[in-house]
Amino acid sequence: MHLLGCTLLLLLGAVAIAQPSYSLDCNFSGTTFFDNFNFWTAGDPTYGFVHYVDQATAEAYGMINVAEHPAEWRADATQVLDPDSALGRLSIRLTSIQSWTHGLFILDLVHMPPNQCGVWPAFWTLGSGTWPYNGEIDIIEYVGVESDNVMTLHTLGGPACTVAGSGQSGILGPSNNCSVSIHGAGGGYTGCSVTATLPDTVGSGFDETGGVYAMQWTSEGIQIWYFPRPQIPSSITLGQPDPSTFGLPMANFAGDCDFDAHFFNHSIIFDTTFCGTYAGPEWEPQGFVLIRMQSWTSCNDFVANNPEAFNDTYWQVNYLAVYTTPPAA
């Protein structure tokens, strides 16, 4: 049972809809949202120009709102920094105290960081141990001015984990092999990715209406859906989500993969970093001017010297709910 730290929703049993196979495990929302997360304060594993801070520091700098609904947290947009410093822009990385193997994860988002030079936001789940031991599931991820969500699985070798790329609206590639160990030098972070083809799945476009992301994880595979706010399924709105009514997922990770061997005991993570191993090299390819000789250092320079560019670099969450199925008898 995952009851510690959860706010349980009272469901109205009289509502007659298709009987879902899931029941609510917990709901993170409102003034207790941050009680369910640890604030990461170690260095950024992706070498971003970022300085992750604890809750007390975040409150002191006005980076989180703990008193109101919806929950909101942001990167610092006030300080001019030294681009050659090891400590970059103040930001927040949240890791859930609880962890899960399998489930239906529903995120109702009002706002995510808009598209901006050097920004790299993500909403994902991660297993314990050395990365990516026990797997990684990237539900929302984009950098800079990318307008399409990139959903990715990362595994650590072992038994094969390849996906077919069928039964989805997104596009699989460049690889269908989720193991980070097969991509060689320079490609060690690749995994197997699906790029969304639906409009406004991330960034500034998403923020026009907000919406819901849903991720279902079972022994058979992992599916990800996005619903703009006017199109959220009624089963989600009623608190009885039924994936059989969700329609075609954006990403359907299924195929020749033992998912239970590769994905286990995941925590939920929100983070906003800058530049690093993804947004850094993308600086020049995305059309930004080289302020310095290289993309990565140019990215750091912009982030350091333009705090006002990040005034809207924040997350705003109505709720994050996790649904699970009863254990087998």
Provide a descriptive summary of the structure in words.
The chain is built from six helices and 20 strands. It is mainly beta and 329 residues long. It has one domain (29-323): Sandwich (Jelly Rolls), CATH 2.60.120.200. Strands 1, 4, 5, 8, 15, 16, 17 and 20 form an eight-stranded antiparallel beta sheet that branches. An eight-stranded antiparallel beta sheet has the order 2-7-19-9-10-11-14-13. The longest helix has 11 residues, at 295-305. The protein is globular. It starts with 22 loop residues before the first strand and ends in a 5-residue tail after the last strand. 45% of the residues are buried. The model is unreliable at 7-20 (pLDDT under 50).
Cα end-to-end separation: 15 Å
Structural class: mainly beta
Q: N-to-C SSE series?
A: EEEHEEEEEEEEEEEHEEHEEHEHHE
Question: Which percent band covers the strand fraction?
Answer: 25-35%
Helical content band? 10-25%
Q: Which class in CATH terms?
A: Mainly Beta
Task: Provide a compact summary of the structure.
The protein has 329 residues and is mostly beta strands. It has six helices and 20 strands. The two termini are 15 Å apart.
Task: Offer a few descriptive terms.
single chain; 329 residues; mainly beta; Jelly Rolls; 8-stranded antiparallel sheet; 6 helices
Write the layout of secondary structure elements.
Blueprint (H helix, E strand, L loop, with lengths): L22 E7 L7 E3 L10 E3 L2 H6 L3 E2 L5 E4 L14 E3 L1 E4 L6 E9 L7 E9 L8 E6 L8 E5 L6 E3 L7 E2 L19 E4 L7 H4 L4 E8 L2 E8 L5 H4 L13 E3 L1 E3 L1 H4 L3 E9 L1 H4 L15 H11 L8 E11 L5
Parallel strand pairs: 3-6
Antiparallel strand pairs: 1-20, 2-7, 4-5, 5-20, 7-19, 8-15, 8-20, 9-10, 9-19, 10-11, 11-14, 12-18, 13-14, 15-16, 16-17
